[in-house]
């Protein structure tokens, strides 16, 4: 598969973007003064939806993000908007019998995806410690376990992150179409379109969505310069973010950071449409289940017990 | 229209004239608004981290107030129904005052949504034509539509009716009546859509019960009219407003039925949760009895229930319903009861424990209190101003100059009481 789509699918765009752009310009007049005094740029105020961008506009927007990164962090970055590959649908498998609860995935994810480090501290993966005798029981899960050594006797560990649902309640709830599901299954957010209403957070059954309650704190030396527009580019204050299966890596054929770092091989990742992939092998030979299956969100994230 | 300029001038004159009590009231409200504005500037600068909301409890005080006020907005207009059914004489006044209350409540609703937004500068993204509203799937997109429609409808009705009356002309029933009748289903739909906003979320079992929308309507029928009852009494005193005792008592009686329904639905909900005792019980437990030592809301839960039951009894017994001391006490109790139940009591337990079972105990920060006070200040200010202009028009002391034999409308303000 060498053919790669480098631009978003414009065919999905709502009808008649030019009229919308005109209406926006027409309506903007009164708001201009008020907004510019709050430090909001006119260009951002008048921009359209990501899916409406022409190839030229997209190039312009990506260059602008790189410029802003340079201003803010004094560091050169590359920001892409690589689209989904045809014939690819990502699937994720997590082996609960292997996971030891070391949280290396949590910190590899933080290092890769440029979230806020402190107040608020944002982590896209949450590992819960549970009692073996209770099984998966959220009422007695320990989210903040501190152990000298893991796994602790009698305990097992359940990491949770965005389940990339096929029927995503967050996408349904979003009032502005600022979050959507891509053709390869990744649910993405345009941080420049999100209005910060947090409906998606109420709708998500997995606690996978996180809000930038303040301007994210991200030291320049910890910035990952390899960025995707819909993924790990630095976020502004007041918008929602979440796991994207490391879109900046996986669309280039690499593994997500959490898969790569897992010391016990509990994390599996691959193309669900490829019969030879590891994830397909897991699904065909192991007993898999999805989290909160009764909600019919149909995740592309599967849990299983290999042993 | 030359009449319009006169109307605006006359209205402005009404707003700046008034007794000492009126001026003190307005000054107090302006002070509240100032406090809220300062707090909001702080929140915009630092972000919503100025609140105590976090990822676990991602909606809280602002959205709770919003929900309560949607009920107030809806119910004020619902008073039109009994007014028609029982053929009250001052139907026009009831309609107008209900709509004035709705306009103020909706102003507060929209402000509460605004202060809760992470990116208020991007409000255009939800507008039809200008942005990309997620039609028809997102309930918040629906809510924005029905709330704004309801606001526009009320503004149009009030302006039409008041201006006509001011000009000394009769309103055209062919315009007035359809609009009033339309405002009734729209008012119910605003509240229903708001209930569906929570109701539709399968991730939050506390909200995901079909009883939610009926309970919303039932409790709205209590909180909205409670404001109206008190308002009627004030206007009767200050403007010789023609509202009979019987009308007020009838409203109180209807409120007691609504409160009964509200309490019954609450009981049905509590029974189902406690008897089946599934894992979904935890949210109800958190509100009514505390969970793992977290008891922040428990006193409020019981206070709310006590207020609601007491008000129900006061409004049910004819003697206490007809006594203005107990009647007004009942109105205050209803406000307190419904405010807790529909505000914090609905929103916070929906998030506690969160979807992964974590308990984050939320209480509002000073910033949140200040901003909420500011929003209420704006709402009461809008309401005061609207009533200050509307009441003299309705009782006939504020008229277009060419329609009045006596000199000018200058004496049309509230007598200082």
Structural features, described:
The complex is a heterodimer of chains A (307) and B (417). Chain A is α+β, with helices and mostly antiparallel strands and 307 residues long. Chain A is 27% helix and 15% strand. Chain A has a single domain (83-307), classed as Alpha-Beta Plaits, CATH 3.30.70. Chain A is built from nine helices and twelve strands. In chain A, a hairpin with a 5-residue loop joins strand 5 and strand 6. The model of chain A is unreliable at 1-15 (pLDDT under 50). Chain B has a single domain (2-410), classed as Formate dehydrogenase/DMSO reductase fold, CATH 1.20.1630. Helix content of chain B is 71%, strand content 0%. Chain B has helices at 2-16, 20-46, 61-78, 80-85, 91-116, 139-166, 173-199, 212-239, 245-276, 281-288, 298-316, 318-322, 324-342, 344-351, 366-395. The two termini of chain B are 36 Å apart. Chains A and B meet through helix 1, helix 5, helix 6 and strand 7 of A and helix 6 of B.
What would you say about this model in short?
The complex is a heterodimer of chains A (307) and B (417). Chain A has 307 residues and is α+β, with helices and mostly antiparallel strands. Chain A is built from 9 helices and 12 strands.
Q: Strand order across the biggest sheet of chain A?
A: 10-2-12-11
CATH architecture of chain A: 2-Layer Sandwich
Structural class of chain B, please?
A: mainly alpha
Structure class of chain A: alpha+beta
Radius of gyration of chain B: 22 Å
Provide the residue-averaged pLDDT of chain A. 90
**Alpha-carbon Rg of chain A, integer:** 20 Å
Assembly of the depicted chains = heterodimer
> In what range is the share of β-strand residues of chain B?
under 5%
- Tally of contiguous helical segments of chain B: 15
The proportion of strand residues of chain A reads 15-25%
Examine the secondary-structure arrangement and name the CATH architecture of chain B.
Answer: Up-down Bundle
Contiguous runs where pLDDT drops below 50 for at least 5 residues of chain A: 1-15
Q: Care to count the β-strands of chain B? A: 0
Question: For the record, what is the CATH homologous superfamily label of chain B?
Answer: Formate dehydrogenase/DMSO reductase domain
Classified by CATH, the class of chain B is: Mainly Alpha
């Amino acid at each position: 598969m060498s053919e790669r789509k480098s631009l978003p699918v414009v065919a999905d765009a709502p009808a008649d973007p030019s009229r919308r752009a005109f209406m926006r310009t027409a309506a903007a007049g009164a708001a201009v003064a008020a907004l510019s005094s709050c430090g909001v740029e006119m260009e951002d105020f008048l921009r359209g939806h990501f899916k409406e961008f022409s190839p030229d506009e997209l190039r312009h927007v990506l260059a602008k993000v790189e410029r802003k990164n340079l201003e803010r962090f004094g560091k050169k970055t590359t920001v892409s908007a690589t689209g989904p590959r045809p014939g690819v649908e990502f699937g994720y498998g997590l082996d609960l019998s292997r996971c030891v609860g070391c949280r290396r995935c949590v910190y590899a994810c933080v290092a890769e995806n440029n979230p806020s480090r402190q107040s608020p501290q944002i982590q896209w993966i949450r590992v819960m410690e549970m009692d073996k005798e209770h099984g998966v029981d959220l009422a007695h899960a320990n989210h903040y376990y501190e152990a000298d050594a893991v796994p602790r006797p009698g305990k097992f560990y359940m990491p949770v992150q965005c389940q990339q649902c096929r029927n995503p309640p967050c996408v349904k709830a979003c009032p502005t179409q600022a979050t959507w599901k891509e053709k390869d299954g990744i649910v993405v957010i345009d941080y420049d379109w999100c209005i910060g209403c947090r409906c998606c957070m109420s709708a998500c059954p997995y606690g996978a969505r996180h809000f930038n309650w303040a301007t994210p704190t991200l030291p320049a030396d910890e910035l990952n310069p390899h960025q995707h527009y819909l993924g790990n580019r630095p976020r502004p204050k007041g918008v929602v973010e979440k796991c994207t299966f490391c879109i900046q890596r996986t669309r280039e054929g690499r593994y997500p950071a959490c898969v790569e770092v897992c010391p016990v091989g509990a994390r599996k990742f691959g193309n669900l449409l490829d019969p030879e992939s590891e994830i397909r092998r897991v699904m065909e030979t192991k007993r898999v289940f999805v989290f909160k299956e009764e909600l019919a969100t149909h995740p592309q994230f599967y849990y299983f017990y290999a042993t | 229209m030359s009449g319009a300029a006169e109307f605006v001038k006359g209205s402005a004159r009404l707003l700046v004239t008034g007794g000492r009590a009126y001026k003190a009231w307005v000054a107090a409200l302006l002070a509240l608004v100032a406090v809220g504005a300062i707090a909001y500037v702080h929140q915009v600068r630092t972000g919503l981290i100025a609140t105590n909301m976090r990822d676990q409890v991602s909606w809280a005080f602002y959205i709770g107030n919003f929900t309560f006020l949607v009920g107030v907005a809806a119910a004020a207009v619902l008073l039109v129904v009994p007014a028609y059914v029982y053929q009250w004489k001052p139907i026009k006044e009831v309609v107008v005052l209900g709509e004035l209350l709705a306009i103020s409540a909706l102003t507060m609703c929209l402000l509460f949504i605004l202060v809760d937004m992470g990116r208020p500068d991007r409000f255009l993204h939800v507008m039809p034509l200008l942005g990309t509203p997620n039609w028809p799937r997102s309930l918040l997109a629906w809510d924005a539509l029905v709330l704004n429609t309801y606001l526009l409808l009320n503004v149009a009705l009030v302006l039409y009716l008041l201006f006509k009356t001011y000009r000394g002309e009769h309103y055209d029933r062919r315009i007035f009546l359809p609009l009033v009748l339309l405002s009734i289903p729209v008012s119910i739909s605003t509240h229903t859509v708001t209930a569906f906003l929570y109701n539709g979320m399968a991730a939050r079992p506390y909200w995901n019960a079909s009883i939610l929308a009926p309970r919303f309507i039932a409790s709205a029928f209590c909180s909205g009219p409670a404001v109206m009852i008190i308002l009627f009494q004030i206007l009767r005193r200050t403007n010789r407003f023609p509202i009979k005792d019987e009308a007020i008592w009838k409203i109180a009686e209807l409120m007691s039925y609504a409160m009964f329904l509200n309490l019954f639905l609450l009981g049905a909900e509590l029974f189902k949760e406690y008897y089946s005792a599934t894992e979904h019980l935890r949210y109800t437990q958190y509100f009514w009895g505390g969970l793992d030592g977290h008891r922040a809301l428990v006193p409020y839960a019981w206070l709310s229930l006590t207020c609601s039951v007491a008000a129900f009894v006061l409004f049910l017994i004819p003697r206490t319903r007809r006594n203005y001391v107990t009647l007004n006490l009942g109105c205050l109790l209803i406000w307190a009861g419904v405010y807790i139940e529909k505000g914090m009591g609905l929103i916070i337990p929906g998030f506690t424990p969160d979807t992964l079972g974590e308990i984050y105990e939320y209480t509002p920060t000073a910033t949140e209190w200040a901003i909420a006070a500011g929003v209420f200040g704006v709402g009461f200010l809008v309401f005061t101003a609207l009533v200050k202009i509307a009441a003299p028009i309705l009782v006939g002391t504020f008229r277009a100059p060419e329609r009045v034999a006596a000199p000018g409308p200058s004496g049309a303000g509230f007598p200082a009481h």
